[in-house]
Amino acid sequence: MLKSLRWRLILNALVPMLIILPVTAILITYLLETQIFLANLTNELTRQAILVADTASTYTEIWQDPVRAQAFVERVSPNLTAKLMLLDPTGRLIVSSDPADSFLVGQVLNVPDANLLMTQGLPAEVTMNNKQITDISVPVFNVNAQLIGFVRLTNPLANIYQRSQELRQLMLFVLIGGLLLGIILSWILGREVEKPLRQTTQAAYRLASGDHPTLLPETGPNETRLLQSAFNTLVERLQTMESSRKRLLANLVHELGRPLGALRSASQALLAGAVNDPQLSHELLQGMDDELVRLQGLLNEVSHLHEQVLGNLDLRMQDVLLVPWFQALLPTWQRLAADKKLHWENEIAEDLPSTFYFDPDRMAQALSNLISNAIRYTPPGGKINISLRKNEEALLISVADTGPGIQPEEAQQVFEPYKRGQAAQRLPEGMGLGLSIARDLVQAHGGKLVLDENAHPGTTLTIQLPLVKNSEDEIDQS
């Protein structure tokens, strides 16, 4: 379906045609009328008048007897295209083929000078009025070369010429009126299109200059409204990114400040002599190592957030020995769970494929985010269960805990950046990026990260990776 702006552009393109075509038609009509039609008509009427004059010269009695003249005219006129008149040498009308001229019979009409025509070698005189033929007069001579009268053919199209001139004038007036109307409509339509475009251009320039972006009213044709809607969407995203940037900066300051403070306190204690106490120095070094682990996790989250913004999430897909990869990932987290007095369980199914096609580092990052959240939000005495299994369609890696869980109304929001559930907000640690990062990494593998909303108490998150590619690999290997 054509859009309104397209119709306006078509109309603006047609306005010149509305001018050119009538002007061209008038010019062509004028040239045909003056150069072709008029010349042909003159020649034809002159030829007919000369033939009638030659015929009338042999009937000398018609010039003395009006009755015979009438009979002659009635016999000849049906073969002519013009009105036929016979006049005596003085120009007195004898007879006319038009009954409407009966009142003119006997009246003297203007006739040419026969001697002058003979001197100039012209067979007839063509009378013009406003560049149009009115009549053609041919002198008639007898055998003794004496002038006995005139044959006059009157142009039957004289009135049509006048009407055509009136029609041309009317066309000219219509053309001028259409031109004025087209200019007015073009100005109105152009202004209607130009105003929202100017507003959008100015807003984009202000935005590029660093001014505070503002939303535009969506007015005008469909295309300009679509452009303004796209600009407003861009402004909203920029505002969201700015808000996220400020929130990220605040979270970074908060998240970096606490572990750096703890590391500085531990290092100062060691410098002050705690290094001489083996047990105290071990505890301080263990605490420093834990803080460094948290800093490493924070660095991973910020690195992934940067990749999200740039759209640069590269995967190094390869066939991975599944169970060894899974078992090598767990000991570090198992020790952290033990330090927090959490009960740890591992479940590995027996019907798993020996290898699986994925990026081991990226998938380890996704799984580590889930395990880190489970350990962080599960109180001492709780339980962490990590399972590796499969069904007919997907490989399943589940992380379940007995923490406070996620409320049903928060089930969709927890996967958004910087969104944290009510239970998570009670803890100062974390930036609200862990689940968002894990979901993006799993989706990059063509899988899904699913929250079990029926798991109570606690939270159960499952990574589902499709088996299609890996099944094909197993068939190829077999």
What's the short story on this structure?
The protein is an alpha+beta fold. Helices cover 56% and strands 15% of the residues.
Task: Outline the structure in words.
This protein is of the alpha+beta class and 478 residues long. It has three domains: 4-165, 2-Layer Sandwich (Beta-Lactamase); 223-308, Signal transduction histidine kinase, dimerisation/phosphotransfer (DHp) domain (Helix Hairpins), CATH 1.10.287; 316-477, 2-Layer Sandwich (Heat Shock Protein 90). Helices cover 56% and strands 15% of the residues. The protein has eleven helices and twelve strands. The chain has helices at 4-56, 66-76, 114-120, 158-208, 222-271, 278-310, 322-339, 360-377, 422-425, 434-444, 468-477; strands at 83-87, 93-96, 125-129, 132-141, 147-154, 318-321, 343-348, 355-358, 383-390, 394-401, 448-451, 460-466. The strands form three sheets. It has a five-stranded antiparallel sheet with strand order 2-1-5-4-3, covered by helices on one side. The protein has a five-stranded mixed sheet with strand order 7-9-10-12-11. The chain has a two-stranded antiparallel sheet with strand order 6-8. Mean pLDDT is 76; it is low at 423-428 and 471-478.
Radius of gyration equals: 53 Å
Major β-sheet strand ordering: 2-1-5-4-3
Q: How many DSSP-defined strands?
A: 12
Mass-distribution shape: rod-shaped
Give the helices and strands as they follow along the chain.
HHEEHEEEHHHEHEEHEEHHEEH
Sheet of most strands: 5 strands, antiparallel
| Number of separate structural domains | 3
Nearest-integer average pLDDT? 76
- Helix/sheet category: alpha+beta
> Helical amount among residues, as a percent range?
55-70%
What would you say the CATH architecture of the largest domain is? 2-Layer Sandwich
In terms of DSSP E residues, the strand content is: 15-25%
Query: CATH homologous superfamily of the largest domain?
Result: PAS domain
For the termini, the CA-CA separation is: 56 Å
The CATH class designation of the largest domain is: Alpha Beta
